[in-house]
């Protein structure tokens, strides 16, 4: 794949990166913690309600439909976060080639910024666990009290921390339509990754600049 350019006609100087489904496969830790929370609360979700399709948007936006009411959803979220903080957040595996690519981009002068809908405190722990903290100019996520409920809100905060103008030599990399739509709200194109949690055709339909099949292809696109 040929390298991408920003709307200013140059290679991106800032790369905003999603976390779950983009840098790491976090499904075992997230879904395992969710099942543990449901078991503790005696919640029995409908067959097929809990799966990889849930990963991406904040759980507080998806839990009410699964458990049936806002009160139970709030209890489930608190219980989930306890299980996730204890062990689940460490049950995630970097996708092949991601570690080397992050280090190469950082060493090459690209400013990397995390832009995730995961709670920021958990995102910081995940990056630290994999030894990536120092590679990122900023680590931006949602707050525990949901002050940044959309990916557009997260991207806005990341840009503010970076002191970057929206769309100015910036590109997003993510695995769900929310990444595409959230970055587009700021005039930023999004490269989709095919190894994450999107449904077939989801990224293309949302307007992703391109969808890459592996980290080698992603590296070529970003150089």
From TrEMBL:
Signal peptide: none annotated. InterPro entries: HAD-like_hydrolase_sf (IPR050155), HAD-like_sf (IPR036412), HAD_2 (IPR041492), HAD_sf (IPR023214), PGP-like_dom2 (IPR023198). PANTHER family: 5'-NUCLEOTIDASE, PHOSPHOGLYCOLATE PHOSPHATASE. This is HAD hydrolase-like protein. It comes from Pseudonocardia benzenivorans.
